[in-house]
Design goal:
Helix content is 22%, strand content 38%. It is an alpha+beta fold. Strand 4 and strand 5 form a beta hairpin.
Length: 142
C-alpha cells in the first residue's frame, strides 16, 4: 500500500534512521509513538538544511496536525529510510508527507504519514506568511 500523495508534491529530503532497541515496546515491535519521532527526524533535518535560505528571526514552524498509517510492524535491529515530501503551500502553512521503509527491504512500505506545518510569529503567537525563501522552495516544481 502506498500513501496517496497530492498531485503537486515533491521529494525534498531523505534520511536513514537506525531502529534503536529502546524504540520497541513490551510486544517486541517499534512502539506506535516512535513512528512520529522518525517523521520528526526527517522534518527537522530538512528544516535545518534549508534554514539559511528561510530563516526569519522570531519566526518558525509549528506542527498543528500529524497522522500515521501503520502498515507493517518494525523490529530491532535495522535501519529505516524516511522520505519526506512537501505539497504546495498556503499563505502560512504547508503539508508534509512521509514514507518509511527498511533499508534492507526498500520496496516495502512499513508506514506512511503526514503533518501540517504552520509558520508562526512566536512573539505574537499567531500564524505568519511563509518566508519568501521557503515559499520559493515549496513552490518550485520538480
Amino acid at each position: 500500500m502506498r500513501l496517496e500523495l497530492p498531485e503537486h508534491r515533491k521529494l525534498v529530503y531523505e534520511v536513514v534512521v537506525p531502529i534503536r532497541w529502546g524504540d520497541m515496546d513490551a510486544f517486541g515491535h517499534v512502539n506506535n509513538t516512535v513512528y512520529f519521532r522518525y517523521m520528526e527526524i526527517a522534518r527537522i533535518g530538512w528544516l535545518d538544511s534549508v534554514a539559511q535560505q528561510t530563516g526569519v528571526p522570531g519566526q518558525g514552524p509549528v506542527v498543528v496536525n500529524a497522522f500515521c498509517n501503520f502498515l507493517l510492524q518494525l523490529q530491532y535491529p535495522g535501519d529505516l529510510r524516511v522520505r519526506m515530501y512537501v505539497a504546495r503551500p498556503g499563505r502560512s502553512s504547508f503539508e508534509t508527507y512521509y514514507e518509511i521503509a527498511r533499508c534492507d527491504d526498500p520496496e516495502t512500505l512499513y508506514a506512511s504519514g503526514g503533518a501540517k506545518t504552520v509558520w508562526t510569529d512566536q512573539a505574537q503567537r499567531r500564524s505568519a506568511p511563509l518566508p519568501p525563501g521557503l515559499r520559493a522552495m515549496l513552490d518550485a516544481e520538480d
